[in-house]
Amino acid sequence: MRTLVLGLGNELAGDDAVGVLAARALRDELAGRADVVESAASGLALLDVLAGYEQAIVLDAVRTGRRPPGTIVELGLEEVGRVVAPSTHQAGLPELAAVAERLGLGFPVRAVVLAVEVVDPYTLGAPLSEPVAAALPELVRRVRAILDAWAREEAEPCTTSTPSGS
């Protein structure tokens, strides 16, 4: 299956860089296993990035104020439909999936969003805050774990049996 790891964010805007930095940390390691892309795009502009992939992991910053900074939240495609928190990217994955279907474009049937609760995704020139910088290795580890789980699922032989008819 074609797999995408998409790091969203603006590396010049403090904590908003966390998705981009995680993708960058994984690029060489995942060569041949997944395409790793960094993007500052949002909304429908992401349709071009996601089209043609069967599965995707999207890495992004989110600021809800409901969780401690550095907390990583994992959402499936079906959960992203609910507005969980405002994002500077407003990826709108369910809407993108619907547009892709109407246009006849391939779109990931399996997608996971790993969103990191951040302190400040808006200040240009700011470094990552301490809690977000501390969460970066865990974010990278979780991408690896998801890809490993997907690879195990693909490698498992089909155990479905048919009735013998006797």
Secondary structure tally: strands: 5
Please give the share of residues in helix.
25-40%
Cα Rg = 17 Å
| Secondary structure category | alpha/beta
Strand content: 15-25%
Order of helices and strands: EHEHEEHHEH
* N-to-C span: 38 Å
Q: Give the count of helical stretches.
A: 5
What is the average per-residue confidence, as pLDDT, rounded to a whole number?
85
Strand order in space, largest sheet: 2-1-3-5-4
At the fourth CATH level, what is the homologous superfamily?
Answer: HybD-like
- At CATH level 3, the topology is Rossmann fold
Shape: globular
User: Segments where pLDDT lies below 50 for 5+ residues?
Assistant: 82-89
For this structure, what is the CATH class? Alpha Beta
- How many discrete domains? 1
User: What's the CATH architecture?
Assistant: 3-Layer(aba) Sandwich
Give a quick account of the main beta sheet: strands, pairing sense, barrel closure: 5 strands, mixed
Describe the 3D structure:
- Helix 1 packs across helix 5.
- The protein is of the alpha/beta class.
- The model is unreliable at 82-89 (pLDDT under 50).
- The longest helix has 26 residues, at 130-155.
- Strand 1 (3-8), helix 1 (18-26) and strand 2 form a beta-alpha-beta unit.
- It is built from 5 helices and 5 strands; from the N terminus they run βαβαββααβα.
- It has a single domain (3-155), classed as Rossmann fold.
- Strands 2-1-3-5-4 form a 5-stranded mixed sheet.
- The N and C termini lie far apart (38 Å).
- 34% of the residues lie in helices and 19% in strands.
